[in-house]
Amino acid sequence: MRWMMAVAAMAFAASVCAAPLKIENKAVQAKTAAYEIKAEYPQTGVKAIDDEVAGWVGREVASFKEGTSPNPSPGAAPWTLDIGFTVERNDAQMLSLLASRSMYTGGAHGGRDFTTWNFLLPDGARVDLAQVLDGQKALARLSELVIADLNKKLLTPDGNGDADWIKRGAGPMWGNYGNVLILADALKIEFEPYAVASWADGPQEVSVPLSALSGLVRKDWRTPVASFDCAKAATTTEKAICGDASLARLDREVAQAYEQRMAQIERAEDRDVMRDVQRRWVGRRDAACHDQSGSALGACLTGVYRARLGELSPDR
Q1: Of 219, 214, 220, 221, which Cα lies nearest the Cα of 141?
Q2: What pLDDT sits at residue 76?
Q3: Cα 252 from Cα 227, distance rounded (Å)
Q4: The predicted structure's pLDDT at residue 188
């Protein structure tokens, strides 16, 4: 009898561990003469997940408020921000979330973009595509599959598709694959309007079976992946980045933003200037946090990287 009770207890524990997270929806709403804000987002009870999601929503709302005019023109439509989430995966291994942000700030139409999160369970460690795919060769294969799918969807006799546009937006650059959902058996890639096609074609979504990437997926998805070779990390800053997945992700995001800015610059002399600015920034990054250690070093580097992302934003 005791062994039967023990087996039953183990089975119950296993079922609890395999159960999806309980999702509670939270909301932020605000309305003035200048703007209207509605942001709904999930909370799970897992601190790492909840802090990440709520922090992102808070920053988006604060940035939107700062950008609005305190004295809008008479008769002008208020600016609007609408944030919503869908739960794309929720099982014992991972929680995957898709955030959709719609924003109107005047003009003919508003803007729409996406942000994705993939959290390993039970601790809620965030993981992204560079931690899943094993390097540039794997990214090239994913890009090949995605481009083939988009060509099939968009390059139709009655469509507005453009092969070069698709190739630019879905080519093998990590920055093109910033919005990926890691499902149990596939990668789902989200492309915002204008990324691979016209506004009229809307956002695009491509699913690639993980089986099509056999041999190209990392075994350990928790390993930090920076923009540089962590095996050659020499400085205190580089070692800190390679020891923390969040810092490594920020490092890649800055490298990707820089790469995209460089791709938009036509004159060689202007690219030289941009390259020099980036080199000087790396020096400032190291100098800004050289006297820090531990969690203080991580916080310092996080602030420096986020500031650089702001400087590299297309709006700057």
Answers
A1: 214
A2: 78
A3: 5
A4: 98
Share of the chain above pLDDT 70, in %: 92
Q: Chain-centre distance of CA 255, in angstroms?
A: 14
Instruction: Give the C-alpha separation, 78 to 36, whole Å.
Output: 7
The DSSP code sequence of 37-90 is EEEEEEE-S-HHHHHHHHHHHHHHHHHHHHHS-SSPPTTPPPEEEEEEEEEEEE
Phi and psi for 251 in degrees, rounded to 5? -60, -45
Residue 155 CB partners (closer than 8 Å, separation 6+): 161, 163, 166
Q: Is the pTM of this model over 0.70?
A: yes
Q: Are 307 and 257 contacting, i.e. CB atoms less than 8 angstroms apart?
A: no
69, 26 Cβ separation under 8 angstroms: no
Domains within the chain, CATH numbers bracketed: 23-126 (3.30.565.40), 130-213 (3.90.640), 230-311 (no CATH)
Rounded to 5 degrees, φ, ψ at 215 are 85, 0
- Report how far Cα 261 is from the mean position of its chain's Cα atoms: 18
pLDDT reported for residue 315: 61
Nearest to 84 by CA among 39, 18, 52, 127: 39
Could you check whether the bond before residue 122 is cis, i.e. omega within 30 degrees of 0?
yes
